């Protein structure tokens, strides 16, 4: 008689957790769609709702042990697949939509904002390097999507992702309300204000809300600047993946390549190239990004289900200070840059 215990299959190990992620993810998506039906846009992004739901469920109810395995799969493998699919919607020639002076300003703001957040958060406020980087990419590039995309590259923990996304999203809403005051106070033109909003506001929906509240011209400029910032996700993923590699001299060459460039980063770069030369049509790229967003929602639920809210509280104030400091840096850079470069 064979008494050897049968190992559970992949489906048996992960199905319960993946089902939980699917249900909570569906609720998050429906809530965001409900917001759109009322306000024409999701005031609270589905990614934020997803991670909040995951955190609330994890810290409010005793969960079956089987949920942890599937939620970890969602927070890692599904998250990595989401990053890969983003590449199908990025065409390098889209950068030419803005002039060289404005592009250089965006370039300086993106990398300067990341460096500022890392110095303030990690070196001064003693946050982990990973958390400071997440705050930096979220506030210098494109909000929740940038945080979610970079997290697996730098091996950030669920607690770090939750802190970066949750606190940034809350402070970003306040920024929408405050920024329009700059127009009369500093005598900004519509174009200048669009540049300031596009460069400094956390997420795409928040940029739209903050910029179109002033004028259509501000809205168009703000949206354009923000979308160019979004294009820096790719280079940032590759750069951060290189600096967060783990290798030693005894590794085989193939293992080193895999470590230097994770599979999903390599896939992202390949899809960017294919989209840029129109092997991947624009319509397909748009659909791939929509699928990526849905997978991101599942992954955010998985991350939320792994968050210890007590651990997030311990860094809350320091994260908030880092975010506010980075926002101020981005605003100052955009104001000075628009004046110096005469972008009016």
Order of helices and strands: HHHHHHHHHHHHHHHH
The SS-based structural class is mainly alpha
Helical content band: over 70%
Number of distinct beta strands: 0
Strand count, sense and barrel status of the largest sheet are: none
Indicate the overall shape.
Answer: globular
Gyration radius, in Å: 21 Å
SSE topology:
Layout: H1 10-39, H2 46-60, H3 66-86, H4 100-124, H5 129-142, H6 144-154, H7 158-178, H8 182-186, H9 190-200, H10 204-212, H11 216-230, H12 233-243, H13 253-260, H14 263-276, H15 282-304, H16 309-340
Task: Give a verbal description of the structure.
- With 344 residues, the protein is an all-alpha fold.
- The chain is built from 16 helices and no strands.
- The longest helix has 32 residues, at 309-340.
Notable traits:
344 residues, mainly alpha, 16 helices, globular
């Amino acid at each position: 008689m064979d008494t050897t215990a049968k190992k559970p299959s992949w489906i048996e190990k992960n199905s319960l957790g993946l089902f939980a992620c699917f249900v909570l993810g569906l609720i998050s998506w429906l809530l965001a769609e409900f917001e759109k039906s009322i306000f024409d846009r999701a005031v609270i992004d589905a990614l934020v709702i997803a991670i909040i739901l995951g955190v609330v469920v994890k810290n409010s109810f005793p969960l079956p042990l089987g949920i942890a395995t599937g939620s970890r799969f969602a927070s890692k493998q599904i998250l990595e697949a989401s990053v890969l699919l983003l590449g199908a919607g990025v065409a390098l020639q889209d950068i030419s939509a803005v002039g060289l002076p404005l592009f250089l300003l965006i370039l300086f703001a993106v990398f300067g904002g990341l460096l500022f957040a890392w110095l303030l958060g990690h070196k001064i406020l003693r946050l982990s390097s990973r958390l400071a980087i997440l705050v930096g990419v979220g506030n210098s590039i494109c909000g929740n999507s940038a945080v979610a995309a970079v997290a697996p590259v730098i091996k950030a923990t669920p607690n770090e992702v939750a802190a970066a996304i949750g606190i940034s999203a809350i402070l970003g809403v306040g920024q929408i309300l405050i920024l329009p005051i700059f127009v009369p106070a500093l005598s900004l033109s519509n174009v200048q204000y669009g540049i300031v909003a596009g460069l400094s506001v956390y997420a795409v929906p928040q940029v739209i809300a903050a910029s179109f509240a002033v004028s259509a011209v501000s809205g168009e400029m703000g949206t354009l600047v923000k979308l160019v910032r979004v294009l820096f996700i790719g280079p940032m993923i590759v750069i951060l993946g290189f600096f967060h590699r783990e290798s030693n001299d005894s590794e085989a060459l193939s293992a080193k390549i895999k470590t230097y460039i994770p599979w999903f980063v390599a896939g992202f770069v390949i899809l960017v190239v294919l989209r840029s030369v129109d092997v991947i049509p624009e319509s397909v790229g748009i659909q791939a990004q929509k699928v990526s967003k849905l997978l991101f929602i599942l992954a955010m639920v998985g991350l939320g289900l792994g968050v210890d809210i007590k651990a997030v509280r311990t860094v809350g104030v320091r994260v908030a200070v880092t975010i506010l400091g980075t926002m101020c840096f981005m605003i100052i850079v955009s104001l000075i840059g628009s004046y110096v470069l005469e972008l009016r």
